[in-house]
Every structure is written in C-alpha cells, then in structure tokens.
Design goal:
about 110 residues; mainly alpha; 2 domains; 7 helices
Length: about 110
C-alpha cells in the first residue's frame, strides 16, 4: 500500500489495517477499490485544504474582540467564571496560555480607559 499513497503526500503517515489477502486483492485486481480510495483521499485533501484556507487564527479572534468591546466584556465575564477554579489552583497553567494573556491585557487596558 505504500506506493498507493505516494500520490498523496499529505497522507504519507496514514495506515490502513487490513488482512494481507485483502491487501493483495486491492493491489492486484480490484481497480474499483483503488479508484474509490483515490477519490476518497482526493476529496479528503480538498476538504483539508478548504479547512486550512478558512481557518480563523488566534490573532483574528483577538482583533475581533478589540473591535467589539461589548462582546469582549461578555466573553471575559464568562471566562472569569469558567476559569475561576483553574486560576486559583493552577495559575501556572493559565499563565502559559499566550493568547489568553493577550486577551487579559486587552481587557485591562480597556478598563483603564
């Protein structure tokens, strides 16, 4: 099957677990199975490409909160409630969250204004 996946570099690490006799059937005689798998992986790659293209970054989320102070305040209140226990008992975890720290700074600056 290794040579089968060389057409899709994205899926080099994918593993199909099948019986040896089924592997031989796929590799030797079942063109429709090969065609189906090739079509499946082509569509999966298209889906993954579309997801990557439409991905929203952390920076975009922070920018959204910068531009929408009412939503930012509402979200901050929810996070304060939900993260209360973690902040009290494992502050080192919260301090390791880079984008959350940026969000907190943004909220503090807004409070000072």
């Amino acid at each position: 099957m290794d040579s089968f996946f060389t057409k899709f570099k994205t899926f080099q690490n994918i593993k199909l677990y099948i019986d040896a006799k089924d592997k031989e059937k796929i590799l030797e005689s079942k063109q429709e199975i090969k065609d189906y798998l090739l079509g499946y992986f082509k569509e999966l790659k298209n889906y993954m490409d579309m997801q990557a293209k439409n991905k929203i970054t952390e920076e975009q989320i922070l920018e959204y909160f910068r531009n929408h102070p009412d939503i930012r305040a509402e979200f901050k209140a929810k996070l304060d409630y939900e993260l209360d226990h973690v902040k009290k008992h494992a502050p080192h975890i919260v301090s390791s969250w880079k984008y959350y720290q940026e969000f907190e700074k943004m909220c503090k600056l807004a409070e000072q204004v």
